[in-house]
Amino acid sequence: MVEYLEWATREIQPDYIKLMHESGTSMGRKFDKPTVELQRIIVEEAKARGYLTVAHALSLQDTLEVLEAGVNGLTHTMFDQPPTQELVDAYKKNKAWLNPTLATIGSLTTEGKDLQHKYAHDPRVEGMIDEGKVGNLCACMGFGVDHGKVEYAYESVRMLRKAGIIILW
């Protein structure tokens, strides 16, 4: 792992390292994911080289684990169950920030379908989007149907913001 980070940072000079920590829980699937210890090593090595670390995690448990590994921020919020005080405490411990990507979560659960349709057909953007692509804007991913709720994502943002966690929009 150390050799990879040395090569990657020498060759591409990133601003940050993004970790994937996804069990598939919130999408009704089962994915293998790295151990927390491996993620911690990646975080430590990245930080030693001066890079931020961010992570993809969509379930509460995955988020708690990757925060335990020490990441600087999350690139999505969780939506598989209601947020907890443990989540708030984990963010505070790391001084981590959140970029919630609520539109993505709405697409995963299909609960954002009405908004997607509204914005895809907004007269202010008419002619700016190829007509053949407008349908793409209205199509939800749907991977999270029956496995989570967009309201849990909204509530996580409200809780974290109220607790003083930086929310990036």
Descriptive overview:
The mean pLDDT is 90. A 4-stranded parallel sheet has the order 1-2-3-4, covered by helices on one side. It is 47% helix and 8% strand. The protein is an alpha/beta fold. The protein has one domain (2-162): Amidohydrolase (Rossmann fold), CATH 3.40.50.
Key descriptive features of the protein:
single chain, Rossmann fold, four-stranded parallel beta sheet
Describe the protein's topology.
Blueprint: H1 2-11, E1 16-20, H2 36-48, E2 52-56, H3 60-68, E3 73-74, H4 85-94, E4 97-98, H5 102-109, H6 113-120, H7 131-138, H8 150-162
Parallel strand pairs: 1-2, 2-3, 3-4
Helix pairs in contact: 3-4, 6-7
Strand content: 5-15%
- Helix share, percent: 40-55%
Q: Within the largest sheet, what's the order of strands?
A: 1-2-3-4
Element-level helix/strand string: HEHEHEHEHHHH
Oligomeric state of shown chains: single chain
DSSP, total strands: 4
How would you summarize this macromolecular structure in one to three sentences?
This protein is of the alpha/beta class and 169 residues long. 47% of the residues lie in helices and 8% in strands. It has one domain (2-162): Amidohydrolase (Rossmann fold), CATH 3.40.50.10910.
